[in-house]
Amino acid sequence: MHKLCCPCCFGRACLIPNQGYLSESGASLVDRKLNLNVVPKTRVVRLVAESFNYARIDRQKAKLKKRIKEHYPSAHFNRMSLPLKTGSFQLFVEGYKDADYWLRRFDSEPLPPSVAKSFQLQFERLVVLDYIIRNTDRGNDNWLIKYVAPKITTQVGGTGGRTMHGVVTPKLPNALGASKIVDLNEPPQASPKPTADGRPSNHMGGGAATNAQQDSSSLTSSEDEPSSRSPPTSEPDWNVVNSAFIRIAAIDNGLAFPFKHPDSWRAYPYHWAWLPQAKIPFSEEIKEQVLPQLSDMNFVEEICTELLYLFQQDRGFDKRLFERQMSVMRGQILNLTQALRDGKSPVQLVQMPAVIVERSSGSRFFSFTQRFQNKSPFFSWW
């Protein structure tokens, strides 16, 4: 009743109700087929737990069966526990934060050029996924970013030029006297024992002591003169900087795969279209990755077939509505391939007219009909 009386406030008229778990798993399927690697692995599972929402009669029936089994162990029931519930199960990702948090940080702390390029490629994969499945609920708070800033690794003298990670040598104050130089490559030696006159004994002999003095003087002079292997510079040595790491995770895909383009009240835009990354044309990397596959109609129909097997698990599966869902997805793929060939940007992609590609029924071979959707939503976003 609320959907009929006030559709602008409740639900989405372009989506099939109660199929959010299939949409989550379907997004993971499309991500896996295109090798985008932005959606955490998601599968349809059947689980039971007392914390789930069950009707009172189901809970009472489970308790009654348990009591009967305790008094009559030979009694047999087809199901002892609560009824199984079907839903989507998604792999949890660690170290990620809302994209909105990192995007604000990146405005004041720009990324290094190499990291910015990696982020742009990850962003384009998100765009490809959302556009194909026509995600109607993509804000900047329901996709995640994991960013590990670069760290400078310090070098410690006496290691033969090797880098020691995480080791910092503190500077001693002048009041503590001369600093002692220790070679970390040499095994520890026993401290000299004092003689009767109070002076430390030297078991190495005079020649060894002379060599030690020469080594000490040479070390001292080498410290005063700049090393030929590492000339002094005011800039950090980027060879010892741990490279930064950035990844995107596209979660919350439960409101995708509509059976028609939004045409009632709201347009359900992609909020990433207002980001500066959306104004950059698609890179050659993403074109080489997805364009050959999406241009092959056999590959597109292979995705549709696998989605059919997935969506058939729902009790209320309707083949007619599923074909309409695939018609919208084919139209999205058609627009995407055209935008990639023309060198457009993501923001230009979402401005393209909505297309529906329907498959003709009763034909042995693939026969498709293309048409544009003329009706627009009441509240448009362009």
UniProtKB/TrEMBL annotation:
Q: Where is this region: Disordered?
A: 184-236
Name the enzyme group at the top EC level.
transferase
Q: A Gene Ontology molecular-function term?
A: ATP binding
Question: For this UniProt entry, what is the primary localization, expressed as one broad class?
Answer: membrane
Q: Where is the PI3K/PI4K catalytic domain positioned along the sequence? A: 1-359
Kindly give the membrane topology term recorded for this protein: Peripheral membrane protein
Residues crossing the lipid bilayer are none
Which UniProt keywords are listed? ATP-binding, Cell membrane, Kinase, Membrane, Nucleotide-binding, Transferase
**Record's GO cellular component, any one?**
endosome
Q: Which InterPro entries did the record assign?
A: Lsb6/PI4K2, PI3/4_kinase_cat_dom
Family classification: Belongs to the PI3/PI4-kinase family. Type II PI4K subfamily.
- PANTHER family per the UniProt record, alphabetical: PHOSPHATIDYLINOSITOL 4-KINASE TYPE 2, PHOSPHATIDYLINOSITOL 4-KINASE TYPE-II
Q: What is this protein called?
A: Phosphatidylinositol 4-kinase type 2
Q: Which gene encodes it?
A: Dsec\GM10622
